[in-house]
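Amino acids appear as letters; backbone shape is given numerically. Here is one record.
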Amino acid sequence: MALDAPAGTGPVLPEHSRSLQRAALPASAVRPASRSEELLALVRRRGRIEVSESARVLSVSQETVRRELRKLEAQGLVRRSYGLAFPVETSSFETALSQRQQSFPEEKARIAAEVARRLGEAQTIFVDEGFQPLLAARALPRDRELTVVTSSLPVATELSARPNVQVIIIGGRVRGKTLGVVDGAAVDMLRTFRLDLGLIGANGVTVEDGLTTPDPAVASVKAAAIEVSRRRIFIGAHHKFGVTSFVRFAGLDDFEAMITGTQLGSARARAFHAAGAEIVQV
């Protein structure tokens, strides 16, 4: 039976026909909306991307990639720095430890070396989960008796081979992406210690929101480590600054120093100095 169309309109198509019409839209009509999604998926999958490589992979121009990256950055989903783009970690997305090794390795090595120079008289140290804290653990002096409490399986494995380091790993649930230990048992155990120094990382640092991380369970461990450490040092590459993640766990004034790379830039460093942070660039 034919369907009557309302006056002044064309014939009314059955629903399946309208669906076929939508599916048959030219690629140019749907590509701009999906291009950002493809680019976001690419940067999240790889951990970082270059504009030229992304243009080749997606078969678009470099200017198109730059335009889409600007949109994603405005939405708080990526961060651009020195010709590269990195995913911003959110409550629903976090990069794996293996991906973090690819981002600014030379800068992170300098940060780790600076940590070793700032130990002072510390004998008991908390080392956070993450790749930058792992590098800091590797840089700890080998000729010194230390006790290291950590929430990181890789840190515990790295330091357990050293005869002069006693390693204590807090107990709890292990997170698959970072191999960090979290949840109530971890926090409760951590709060029984009184430590000389805490080496703390973060997924984002801003003047307005302080230090943030995507996972509330991770935030609880970090906050407990800050609570039980007499001295606290933040360690993180420059691209962490200016980024806000899901859960706040500390303020800028909770740290005696915030060690990062020279790529942070003088203007941004001055803004953090003005907010009371002691920024150390290496």
Confidence is low (pLDDT under 50) at residues 15-30.
